[in-house]
Model the fold of this input.
Amino acid sequence: MSKKTGAIAVGAVFLVALVAAAVVWLFPIFKVNSFEVEGNEHVAAEDAEQASGVAAGSNLVRLNAREAAHGVASLSWVESATVSRAFPSTVHISVVEHEAVAYVEDGGRTVLVDDKGKEFVEDTPPKEAIQLTGRTESGSPEMQAAVDAVSALPAEVRMRVKTLDIEDTYSLTFVTEDEKTIFWGAAEDNANKAIAFEDVLQLEGESWNISNPSLVTRR
Done:
């Protein structure tokens, strides 16, 4: 085969590929027929599909994944989202939801707070969320300290806690479901305090001080 013939063949193949790509782009050969939603516990799959803005029957190739993910991320429970194509006909939506570790009662409203201190939705609190009382001004240092302390506790431990009272950033006091009070102190050395907290739950006594987790005392 001469160089000229080879060049013509390569050009023909390129032209065919170009035409094929244009046809796939312009015409819905790969149509959206289904959605796959993962990572959702509090967000209904139907709500995620609708928020993506992707219509059934639309051209999967022309899917704007970034715009669709932005739409899903606008849902109150969603912290972040990614959207991708799954050929030949599926839109895949993956969501990361806020972890509701606490909540605040405010004028008849129940506002959920995530593990980063963000108040993100009015909703029924999950069992593992702890009610914050006292100085609960949104975005305040006191609120952030409380959330840092709460987030240090595993979900199964938080389920045994009723409230966390916030006096100031150095005075945090937990009250368990069985009315045991546990003084946490400041939101520092939280990992070790969480260990001490779990130990105290197994002990007799109604009032404990774990502000120094290496020297736990009864109050």
In short: Residues 3-26 form the longest helix (24 residues). Residues 51 and 74 are 8 Å apart (CA to CA).
